[in-house]
Structures are given as C-alpha cells and as structure tokens.
Amino acid sequence: MNFLFRRKKSANSAKERLQLVLIHDRTDLTPAELDSLKDDLIETISRHIEIDPMAVTINVTQDGRSQRLVADIPLRSVGRRRGREPGRAAG
Amino acid sequence: MTAKVVTIASGKGGVGKTTSVANIAVALASHGQKVACIDGDIGLRNLDVVLGLENRIVYDLVDLIEGRCRLRQAMIRDKRLPELYLIPAAQTRDKTAVSPSDMVRLCDELRQEVDWIIIDSPAGIERGFKNAIAAADRVLVMTIPEVSAVRDADRVIGLLDAEEKGPAALVINRLDLAMVKRGDMLSVEDVLDLLAVELIGIIPEDENVIVASNRGQPLALDGKSKVGQAFQNIAQRLMGEQIPFMELESKNLFQRLLGRKKS
Q1: What is the pLDDT of residues B183-239, one digit of tens each?
Q2: Global pTM value
Q3: Residue of B nearest to A27 (CA)
Q4: A1 Cα to chain B: minimum distance (Å)
Q5: Is the pLDDT of residue A82 over 80?
Q6: What is the total count of domains within chain B?
Q7: CB contact set of B12 (below 8 Å; sequence gap of 6+)
Q8: B56 lies in which domain range?
Q9: CA atoms within 13 Å, Cβ hemisphere of A30
Q10: What is the CATH number of the domain that holds B88?
Q11: Which of B155, B139, B145, B133 is nearest to B189 (CA)?
Q12: Is B146 helix (H, G, I), strand (E, B) or coil?
C-alpha cells in the first residue's frame, strides 16, 4: 500500500514507459493493431475449437533484442474430465 | 598499417558524440596510436573547436572528396599529440555533398596511413548517419540515462543490425550516481536491460566537460579527471584490453558484466 502514500520513483516510471515504447518501436505494432490481431486470432481459433474470448491475452514480450508474440488462449472444456486444462501452464 | 574504423552515433543530438570522439581519439593517441578523426557533421562543424584546432583548417572533408586537395593536406595535425589528426567537416555545404561510397573510398585510402579512424556521426538517422557508418568496422552508440536518448539509441541499434553494422557497443554518458541512488535516473543496469547490447563505457556527469570544451582541451589529456579516465578506459577496451568498469555502480553490475563476458 506504500505506493498510495509515496510517489513512485521517476526512474521506475522511465523504465516501464520505455519498455512499452521500445516494443512498439521495434515491432511497428500499435496497441490498436495488436487488438485487431487479437480479434482475428479469436475468430480463427473459434472456428476450430471452443475458447473463452474474454480470457484470451496476447502480448509482445522482449527476449534480448528480439521480440516474441505470446498468446494465452484458455480452452473451454466441454464434457471433458477436470484437471488438465490445456493452454494453461501448471502452477 | 590498416586502421580500424570506429563510428560514434546516437540518433539524438546533444548526448555527447563530438566530445566523445575528441576524447577517445586523444586517449588512443596518448597510447602511441596513430589516429585520424573525421567530423561527419557537414554544415555543423564542431569537432575542430572541441579539439582546439579551429584555427588550423585549410581544407575539409568535401574538398578532399571533390579532389581539391590531397589526403595529407586535409589532415590537420594536433598541437599536443603528434600522431593525432583531424579531417574537419565542410561548414558551407550539406550532407548530400558526400555519399556512403565516398566515405568508403576515403577510409580505404586513410586506412593505410593510421591505426584508427574515428568518425563523428551527425544526429539523426538519414544521409549523414548513413555516410558516417558506411566504412565503419565498429559502431559505438552513445546515450544518456534519459527516456528520449534511450529510445533513439534503440532505434539506431536496430538500424545498425539491419545494415549489418552490428552488434553495436553502448556508451552511457552523463551518469549521475546521486540521482541513480535516489531513484531519479535510469541506472546502467536499467539501460542495459532495455537496450540489450554490450557496454563499452560509462562516463560520469561532470561540469568540467564544458570547461574542457571552452578551452579546446579534451579531458582525456587530464590524468586526474574521472571523465578522462573513463574515456581512456574506452580507448583501451577498443584496443582489446580487458579493463574493469570504474566504481560508479553497485557490485551487482560488476558481477553482471563479468557474467556477460563469459557468455
């Protein structure tokens, strides 16, 4: 709750803001384009398998100087046995 | 003699490229190396004043490229170090007076004469930058721990990769340790996390840099200056020596840098 009372260090803001800006600079992908890519992805996958569109997350992450598009697409388990939920890492 | 060509670029202006070219050239020359530096900022000549050689200019880079003088005539000899030369930029022309292939041709000739060619790139990522990197064997990217300079450095590093001039080596200039400690400046580690490139130098913030340029006496000549020492360290790293980073940062960073070297 500390953050409510103390302003965040400006260096941290700088780093967080730069992380986002650099990802977009390097990939030439705006947040709006990423959203539209997400919609297309949901539409395509939904034609083959049932998913929960609200739970889908898609992000560009950094790995050294290369970028990676990471999508997490939880499947809706219909009439399957419980426990193993594909698409989600354990833990 | 076959010189190594090192270009210093940054994208953003005002981060200290010209000061660094002057100091790295002086540092290399003070180690007995034969050095020629080239001011690539045509129309905005500055390396001559930072080196204190502005009164000696007769011919410039464009004169040389357009054949109005011979190579030796355009090389201004430094007054302090006999093996340091400057090829100044033209002041009354623009960047289109030189092409990347002109620079390659010039450097091929100059390579036979010296051990090092240090090129000062103009700010920006257009023609002047392309000219400055055309002949480079190695590019040092300068930044300061500030959002706009880091962003521009990232862009330049990406362009260098695309032009197959990478991997770039990073110089972080104007680091203010007190500001880093109170959380108001990006640390060396932060910048390395963001840019993910090799580090070749850290220059501390110091008002004496302005005093030195007022006098035209680069700090690398001053044995007592921390900034001068930082540039001497960069020069020695360029020469292939393993020089530890000065104690400007936490132990953490040293361990990290050692770890990086091994990998």
Answers
A1: 999 999 999 999 999 999 999 999 999 999 999 999 999 989 999 999 999 999 999
A2: 0.85
A3: B158
A4: 19
A5: no
A6: 1
A7: B123, B143, B148, B149, B152, B153
A8: 4-262
A9: 3
A10: 3.40.50.300
A11: B145
A12: coil
Kindly provide the b/e burial profile for residues B74-90, where b requires at least 16 CB atoms within 10 angstroms of the residue's own CB: bbbebeebebbbbbbbb
Quick check: B8 and B16 in contact, CB under 8 A?
Answer: no
Type of residue numbered B241: E
Q: Where do runs of H (alpha helix) occur along A6-91? A: 10-27, 31-46
CB contact under 8 A, A18 and B197: no
Phi, psi of B10 (to 5 degrees): -155, -20
**B88 phi and psi, to 5 degrees?**
-75, 160
Q: Which of A6, A15, A68 to mutate to test the interface with B (most CBs of B within 10 A)?
A: A15
Tokens, residue B43: 């129309």
pLDDT band at B77 (very low <50, low <70, confident <90, very high): very high
CA dist B48 and B23 (Å) reads 12
Instruction: Judge: A22–B157 Cβ closer than 8 Å, yes or no.
Output: no
Distance CA(B231)–CA(B192), nearest Å, equals: 19
d(CA B60, CA B178): 42
Neighbours of A56 (CB within 10 A): 18
Q: Tell me how close the Cα of A21 comes to any Cα of chain B, in angstroms.
A: 8
Residue reference for tokens 């502005």 = B54
Compute CA distances B102 → A36, B38, B64, B106, whole Å: 46, 13, 10, 6
